């Protein structure tokens, strides 16, 4: 170290704390706290703050958290994945069909003797279907060099259609209810199991994005694909990887869907992709790549689910949720642009 | 008199077409260790295409590249890097959203020691420290903070980071495409100093530049290209700017050819 070396070598702890306070996740936490306070005040007898209600919010958020985590990687790498909602549906349909096939009909007492293995294989099937869907997206984007918006718009249609063809358009019935009782409706220390799973997956994903070469490479290609390639990053491999991650997340979310409802929800996910995408952008991930925050995405997914729960509780039609999310999305991006200037 | 080892780089017969456009017809380049070779020519002469073929960014249609007299696989940036060739591109090849330190180590990240490293976790602190050491060793004092995003730096600072990255990665040869373009006089001088420091480390340097006075200041040899071909390869000390321009424009042939017996 020479004497002329500038002293501004690394930000001080105080500067870091200041930066944290001004970061997007901090703003989202403030917004979430504000939502809780407002809904608690205006809900009858403050019931919004009830454990049952908060558990429902958590349970409804789990799948969305996973989709948002996957999309964080894809957007960070400068791409988009419009097919996550459709992949979720296809994965749940395949998983449901597999579960029914393996479990067979219930015994006279109504129990499914081989429910355990059926559920395990169904979970695996959902993840595999999601992973394959992501791989297909990644290969089409990198090998055919078709824009990811177009590719995933196409595969969104393909996956939705495939799910409808497989089931003739009706939801899969006869899935062992154990899938709900043993997992989907279960909790650890009051926290719904699906949410625990989603948060653990999100934690791992957050470490991968911010602390590993794979994460740096994804953001580098989102920042400048050409620059990353010339710096020695394997752009094709990284691009395929982010789509596979997104597909895997949709696959897990598809399985969670079954554990939540005990059946599939083929027509229940028209706005799911848009909700997850909105959450990711509200969470501070750039729509144009290069900047991404798993924490921001995860926190922001609670905005739509809390709005919905709150509206239901205070007697406002749930249709207003979409209006509110649309407004929040535009305001969040506008605020982000103001901060960037 | 320098005893000549095999050259660090010997590229022969390189050709590259883009559709109907033959950007490079006959590219040849030889660089020895501790030598600065300037590649000059008018726009479209094929300079950038030639170095892209050598750096692995383009797969040439024909030709061969040998490093230390061993053939190098073509069309792979990774292979070129593994053979000790690092390139500073005109577009700089930086990820503007990533920090200086992250860009310096992009695709060569340092991992933490022990189990965490084997799990793939990065050693960000070590990368920041090594980034400072690198800046120090090249006498670079313009950067205040290696955690800043490269997109927040001035053009000159970005150039310095790009050169530092190439020098840190090159085992044999650094290729620089217009490293002083769009820089002020002081920052250009700093880059020239860095080029000298690079040569003094025993690396070969290929320098593409339109800045002929600076080229003559630092280069040992001048290679002139015109219309996709190398038309002259001469010691820099024998040349004046007017002669180089005449060669670039095709108004004068290689003086050696004229003096050689038929």
UniProtKB/TrEMBL annotation, chain A:
Task: Print the keywords alphabetically.
Answer: Cell membrane, Membrane, Transmembrane, Transmembrane helix
The membrane-spanning stretches of this chain are 24-42, 62-80, 87-106, 118-141, 148-167, 187-209, 239-259, 271-288, 295-313, 319-335
Presence of keyword Cell membrane: yes
Which CDD domains does the record match to this protein?
A: TM_PBP1_transp_AraH_like
Q: So which residues are the signal peptide here?
A: none
The compartments listed are: Cell membrane
GO MF terms listed in the record are: transmembrane transporter activity
Q: What membrane topology was assigned to this protein in its record? A: Multi-pass membrane protein
Cellular component, GO, one term:
plasma membrane
Q: Which PANTHER family match?
A: ABC TRANSPORTER PERMEASE PROTEIN YPHD-RELATED-RELATED, RIBOSE IMPORT PERMEASE PROTEIN RBSC
**Name of this chain's protein:** ABC transporter permease
This chain's source organism reads Microbispora triticiradicis
Taxonomic lineage is: Bacteria, Bacillati, Actinomycetota, Actinomycetes, Streptosporangiales
From TrEMBL, chain B:
- SUPFAM superfamilies noted in UniProt: P-loop containing nucleoside triphosphate hydrolases
Q: Which UniProt keywords apply?
A: ATP-binding, Nucleotide-binding
Spell out the InterPro entries in the cross-references: AAA+_ATPase, ABC_carbohydrate_import_ATPase, ABC_transporter-like_ATP-bd, ABC_transporter-like_CS, P-loop_NTPase
Does ATP-binding show up as a keyword for this record?
yes
Q: Where do the ABC transporter domain residues begin and end?
A: 9-252
Q: Tell me which species this is from.
A: Microbispora triticiradicis
Family annotation (PROSITE patterns): ABC_TRANSPORTER_1, ABC_TRANSPORTER_2
Name the Pfam families on file. ABC_tran (PF00005)
Protein name, per record? Sugar ABC transporter ATP-binding protein
Residue ranges annotated as coiled coil are none
Recorded GO MF terms: ATP binding
